[in-house]
Amino acid sequence: MKRTLYIILTLFGSLLLNGCSGGSLKPNSTGAAYELLLVIDDSVFHSAVGDTLRMFLNQDMPCMPQSEPLFNLSKTDKKGFNDLLQPARNILIVHVGDRWSAAKIKKSHDRWSHPQAIIVAQGPDISSIAEALGRSQDAIIDFFVEAEHKNAIAYQKKSCEAVMQEKVREALGVSLTVPKGLTRSMEAEQFLWLANANLNERENLLVYTTPLPADGKLDPDRLLAARDSVLKAHIPGPSEGSYMTTEYRVQPPMARPIKLENGRDAMEIRGLWRVEGNYMGGPFVSVSTLDTVNRRIVTAEVFLYAPNKYKRNLLRRLEANLYTLNCYGKN
Description:
This protein is of the alpha+beta class. The protein folds into 2 domains: 26-155, 2-Layer Sandwich (Chitobiase, domain 2); 161-327, Mog1/PsbP, alpha/beta/alpha sandwich (Protein Transport Mog1p, Chain A), CATH 3.40.1000.10. Helix content is 30%, strand content 30%. The chain has helices spanning 2-20, 42-45, 48-57, 126-135, 137-158, 162-172, 220-234, 312-320; strands spanning 35-39, 72-76, 90-96, 104-109, 117-123, 174-175, 184-188, 191-195, 202-211, 243-247, 254-259, 265-276, 281-291, 296-305, 326-327.
């Protein structure tokens, strides 16, 4: 009995050590996607540091049909940062004190829970920390968004539309995580359109290919011209002669180079779509990558039609799947 008890206690102690060192015993993180907890004392929050944080964390998410912030912010001071709040999924902590000789921004993961993204901004005074935060604002935003993307990808890989994923592979020689619920499809030459069945909150995924340009570059203007051509040919609107296209007048599309999950270079384009000849519209995100082996550009895109609904979290969840794009060529 004593030996059995000793073994049990030893195993339990080992598990606790594993949990404390980043193992599987850490509690699940709390809070919804794109919620961000600021751990900052009131005097610092009502200074240039707080002004800087509010300026870039509260800004609107780009290329959306209505105003939605990048993150939903909540706040506590350091004394209130207790066991109940420490498992929050996204945390930004600010430390001010003369123990630090210079301002620094530090990133980490999974300190108190899993999955968890943490940034600590520390420095000797208000001005140096505010300056450091201002310089690092894009990197801070990207850090939290990428963490949420990885969370969404991990979850959706466990619960995906396997039949539709195989359809994408067979039709276009492309692998891509297809979110649960996208069970409807329409196929044409080098084009596949997947959608869910909810007419009030329509989720859509497009995969299509276009010929590789002579210069072998992912030029955003060419990608948008190809998008408009493909959509006009394959996505009609509800009235005769109407068709889907890109909205350039209200908010011009935004493009940026990115890395896919597998390390491939790609171009992300974020913008608004509309129906020519009708009043439908919404946000879209596309990702394009070069497939030089098969002399083509492969594009995957998600777009939403969800009038009168908030769309940030839904679009972010869908766009995360675009980062799983890979090209193999048809069998």
